[in-house]
Amino acid sequence: VIYEVNLDVNPEISDEYTQWLKKHIEEMLALPGFKNAQLENVENTETSTKKFCVRYLLESREALESYFTNHAAQMRQDGQNRFGGKFTATRRITQTVTKFSSHQQAVIQLKYFSCQGRAFPTRLLLEDLMIPYKYEVVPFDIWSTVKFGPESGPYRMLPTMNYNGVDVSQTEAIVNFLGFKLNLFGSTDSDHSKSISLCSAAYTDILNPLFQMFWASIRLPSLNIGELAGHSITRMKVIVKCYESFLQASGTKLFISDDRTCTGDYFVFYALRVLVDVFGKEKIFNECSLLQNFYHVMGERPNIKKFLSSSDVMSQPFTLSPKERDMIQLINPFW
User: Fold this and answer.
1) Contact, 197 vs 179, CB < 8 A?
2) CB 95 within 8 A of CB 1
3) Alpha helix (H) ranges present in 48-188?
4) Phi then psi dihedrals of residue 129, to 5 deg
5) Whole-prediction pTM value?
6) Which residues contact 104 (CB under 8 A, 6 or more apart)?
7) 155-183: pLDDT as tens digits
8) How far is the C-alpha of 87 from the C-alpha of 264, rounded, in Å?
9) Which end of the chain offers a freer environment for a tag, N or C, measured as fewer CB atoms within 10 Å?
10) 316: helix, coil or strand?
11) How far is CA 311 from the centre of its chain?
């Protein structure tokens, strides 16, 4: 919520008033719910008065109402006592409907293998928001020869992304970079923090362990699959319950962090998509009706639905492990 105060100040007191106003703004920011403020000079060619605009960002409308009830009269009276009759103030309240950015002009190139894997949350985000990008497939059979070249980024891993000439590596870093560029972290610091944590939990505790299990019989043929799956799946169950709790706390919101999609929603949706494929909806959404609704809402978003139904995506495995489907059958009973 933006609380805007527009001031017309007599030029005789403009210097003194400006000094007082800066201290006044600092006092306002010490009040509950005020996050930051911006003091602006307003160009004025019509009158001789000095014009200022002060824009306060608050956590919520409730915080602003609390200010009106408990603090506004006192804070306004101080200015009247000092400069009464030599300035006027008008006020208005605005709320952000939608944030826009110039991302349509960005040149984005995403590089990964011919599977869904770790690049898929990024692709879901870009497809859903209709942001053009080039998807370059790196053949897996030549990976060993290019792994230590510039194609693999500084960490010798895919995916990598180039955004207007800036190279970004690592799965979570790519999505969080796009979140920063496209304002996809929610409207508050709390939403921002939650969005990042959603990405991290989905990747660290669900996607990465599952993908490692898909490869386990190839890379570690003597490994006991029960030992491998047991701890990881126990952790996955905890994360799924946490997601349900987040939705319970958000009331009637359709998305986990804010009233519009954030980076975390794409990660969570993809993690759920893999879990459902491996273990089935009945197991995953047992006692998680809100999470099941979230999964449905995300899957029915027109651009995501179109993308997921494309022949390219439907034919892609999660990983390139030749034993992926066999491993899914083996680990299914452990949920």
Assistant:
1) no
2) yes
3) 61-70, 72-83, 120-128, 143-146, 171-182
4) -90, 5
5) 0.70
6) 131, 132
7) 888 999 999 999 999 999 999 999 999 88
8) 47
9) C
10) coil
11) 28
Q: What is the pLDDT of residues 181-233, one digit of tens each?
A: 988 887 778 888 888 999 999 999 999 999 999 998 776 666 677 777 888 99
CB 7 within 8 A of CB 54: yes
Q: Which two tokens stand for residue 196?
A: 């990042």
Cβ count within 10 A of residue 93: 13
Residue with tokens 């893999």: 274
- Residue 188 DSSP label: S
Tokens of residue 147, six digits? 């792994």
Rounded distance, CA 92 to CA 159, Å? 46
- Which amino acid, one-letter code, is at 269? F
Measured distance CA(228)–CA(265) in Å, rounded: 28
| Residue 142 identity | I
pLDDT for the residue numbered 222 = 60
Handedness of CA 70, 74, 77, 82 (dihedral sign): negative
Tell me the three state secondary structure of residue 332: helix
Token duo for residue 250: 């958000």
Amino acid at 94: T
How far is it, in rounded angstroms, from Cα 26 to Cα 21?
9
Fill in the amino acid letter for 262.
C
The H or E element containing residue 160 is: strand 160-163
Q: Please give the sequence-ordered ranges of beta strands (E in DSSP) within the chain, or none if there are none.
A: 2-9, 34-42, 50-58, 87-94, 108-112, 134-137, 160-163, 166-169
Q: How far is CA 85 from CA 11, 111, 216, 236, in A?
A: 13, 64, 78, 65
